[in-house]
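re: ur msg from earlier - yeah i can do the protoporphyrin IX containing FE complex, just paste it... oh wait u already did. ok heres what im feeding in:
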Amino acid sequence: MTVLTRTGERRLDGPVLRHPLGVYPEYRADPLTLFYDNALAYGGSVRLRLAHQQVHLLVEPEHIEQVLVTHAERYEKGISYRSLNYLLGPGLLTSGGELWKRQRALIKPAFARRHVETEIPLMVECAQRMRTRLDARAADGEAFDLVPEVMGFAADVVCRAVLGADLDGVLPQIEDDVRQGVSWVMQHMSAPIQIPPELPTPGNRRLHRARRRLHQVVDEVIGKHRHTEGDTHSLLARLLAARDDTGHAMDDEQLRHEVLTFLLAGHETTGGALAWTIYELCRNPAVLDRVRAEIDAYPDALDDPEVVRAALPTLEYTGRAIDEAMRLHPPAWAFSRTALETDHFDRFDLAPGAIVVISPFVNQRLPQFWDSPLTYDPDRFTKERNRARPPFRYFPFGWGAHLCVGQHMALIEIRVGLAMLLSRYDIELVNGMRVRENPEISNIPDPVMIRLSRREHVAAQEA
Ligand code: HEM
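and the outut:
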């Protein structure tokens, strides 16, 4: 429905609110439910007041298409990216305009599938390290939270893929500093009044320390790569070699922004997707059996990177199970844009400065777009059904010019991690519990309590 203001502006409809902070208390408590329930109640796009800001949650495919595709140049990355910018600097995720365009052209080829596939041996090694840790868990038989384990795997992969293999001494510190940075960004992003990062509050001081250490490590690795002592297969090596049409290369400062961006953007998102997939498989034994049947076609060789490389294209149903987990639980649950100029839609207008939120979580669960939307069913993602699906129903990696550059890397990594876990362990979800969605920068399950045991044939082989 359209609402006309006293000045004749056409506005999106939204709830009338008595609380001075609007729906901000609900947003702090559970943003996913707030967005989803309002999209349901208003049957589509809706306006919500969060403290002093009006937020336009766009749901209807033609509204989203206008913002992300047809009028994309009228928008810039939104407010949620400002806090990230403070941590990362103007890298691909947070920059706009000419800088973003130039960087996108330089960076995208480095993430091409053929390059990412050269990282499979590294992913297999990281999964082996995760299995060594998990073997100890399986031996003691106690229940534990799976989430930190798969997050550790994802951090291991992204740090080594981006910076090179030789990181053993500093990896835990990098992980810890990235986590501190993420937690600051989360606080800063969702505060009704944002405290300037320069003020010496305890939280800001922690951020500055983490940021300083991250800069130091990343600058050292860049320095080594410049003097060709670094790993020549790393993503950083590809970025150092990248040139645009005019022969321009990235300087060290820009490289640092980009490297930090990849460490952050490629860590919790991918770990979250793997954790959610395992959770859904444990709750859906018939699906798990079909996934296992594919993986068990390689009974004792999923330790060999060459076998894994050959196996990946055959894990077709497994891929569907991952796609479906990312439908119900998209790690990037929402992203934002700010209007740079006036934009007219079918039943409302946006003024310069208007805040737009687009939520894969909402669109991927709405009953007008999906049958039985809350049921986990990987067969929604057969090739035929993918081809027949209209746009803006499913977009866990975004859409348009800003489509995630790490998509191939993430999807390969999740399949490698999943296959190597399921080929070795039986996983029991403790008490069959329901897990809470935990929408921070990424939507991470909180917690996934499991018990592990080595599978019978693995135990027999190793006896
Ligand atoms: C399951 C894992 C992942 C998910 C769900 C995901 C999701 C997304 C989404 C939704 C966007 C678009 C944001 C927007 O339009 O505002 C995006 C952008 C981006 N992602 Fe990912 N991502 C994942 C993994 C990765 C990885 C592994 C990397 C790199 C190592 C990465 C790097 C980036 C970058 C640099 C952008 C900005 C692209 C641009 O604006 O040009 N992501 N991602």
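cool cool. The longest strand covers residues 53-58. ping me if u need the other ligands too
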